[in-house]
Design a protein that fits this description.
The protein is mainly α. It has 5 helices and 2 strands, in the order αβαβααα.
Length: 98
């Protein structure tokens, strides 16, 4: 993760258990970013997280699961970035209309 966030300014990181590492949490604390990471059950020192923001993480994760129901998006069948983005907008509109 550090190479992905290097040089990018942000105020917080919302992530799941895969990103629960002491090194990442320490780097985010140095930056002054708010950490909202679903914690691994075996974590020795539990982190305090904002429950309201955590519920938003869950809603976003559920939305991505619904997007993956569309085979064309899950398989990345579109040939160009523009057509892929259009498919995501179309699928989001269908999901929103349900």
């Amino acid at each position: 993760v550090p190479p992905l966030i290097d040089g990018i300014a942000f105020d917080g990181l919302i992530a799941d258990k895969a990103f629960d590492s002491n090194a990442l949490v320490a780097e985010l604390n140095e930056r002054g970013a708010k950490v909202v990471i679903s914690q691994h059950p075996g974590r020795a020192q539990k982190l305090k997280i904002d429950a309201a923001i955590y519920t938003w993480r869950h809603l976003i994760e559920n939305f991505f699961c619904k997007l993956k129901e569309f085979k064309r998006i899950a398989m990345r069948a579109c040939k160009t970035d523009h057509s892929f983005a259009a498919m995501i907008y179309l699928a989001a509109a269908v999901i929103n209309s349900r």
